Amino acid sequence: MTRQVHTTQRVEAGALALAAVVAAVLLYPGSWWVVLAAFLVFDLSMLGYVRSAATGATTYNLVHNYAFPALAAAAALALDAVSSTMSAATGVLACAWAFHVGVDRALGYGLKLPDSFRNTHLGRIGHEQSSRGQP
């Protein structure tokens, strides 16, 4: 992947993370802080790596994509007719989830490939060691 495409994807992800926080502040002014407080909860999906790299990649990728936050946002809209409390909770979840994925992607943490945690669709993450063992 070229550096320009990689940079564009990271900027887009950062913009989405910012939009998620702004949406939470505007739509759920009493609960916007949950978006920040719940940030690390989504990383529990990495527990799949305890079993294997392939299982970890699957569990991580299930949580670290934009499809499920979008479904949660749609559910929040649908629930508004039934229960404003359920709609707000689901909406805050959608914002928190989208914020987490956006920040991860902006930092270069992409969807995982099944061979290693460090191999992602955005490239390899982490610092490489030289053949002499020096950083």
Molecular shape: globular
Mean pLDDT: 90
Estimated share of beta-strand residues: 5-15%
Largest sheet: 3 strands, antiparallel
Rounded to an integer in angstroms, the radius of gyration calculated over CA atoms is 17 Å
Compressed to H and E, one letter per element, the order equals HHHHHEEE
The separation of the N and C termini measures: 24 Å
Strand elements, count: 3
- List low-pLDDT spans: 129-135
Strand order of the largest sheet: 1-2-3
Structurally, the number of domains stands at 1
Description:
The protein is built from 5 helices and 3 strands. With 135 residues, the chain is mostly helical. The protein has one domain. It has a 3-stranded antiparallel beta sheet with strand order 1-2-3, covered by helices on one side. The longest helix has 25 residues.
Could you give the topology of this structure?
Blueprint: H1 3-27, H2 33-37, H3 53-63, H4 67-79, H5 84-106, E1 112-113, E2 116-120, E3 123-124
Antiparallel strand pairs: 1-2, 2-3
Helix pairs in contact: 1-5, 4-5
Primary descriptors:
single chain; 135 residues; mainly alpha; 3-stranded antiparallel beta sheet; 5 helices; 3 strands; 57% helix
Compact description:
This protein is mainly α and 135 residues long.
